[in-house]
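Session log. Operator J.P. requested a structure for one protein chain; no other inputs attached. Running the standard single-chain path with token output.
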Amino acid sequence: MEAKFREKQNLTEREVNQEHGIGIRQLRRMRLCGTGPRYIKISGQIGKKGGRIIYPIAAVEEWLKSRPTGGGAEDGGRL
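Structure written below.
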């Protein structure tokens, strides 16, 4: 029987930090403010705090593309 491996579709906070350089505290702050990438909360036990947060890779990439870059000059920031 052949084992089928699915390509990874989600990242943990730590993986987003390592792959994209966004600090874990910054990710948490953005979640509270509603300004960061979409995420999924996988709850722990019912009625208790905690659980895990995962970020769909597509959502992180989409969010990164939507962020402004450069100095705001229309010519791409060239002098």
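Operator note: The mean pLDDT is 83.
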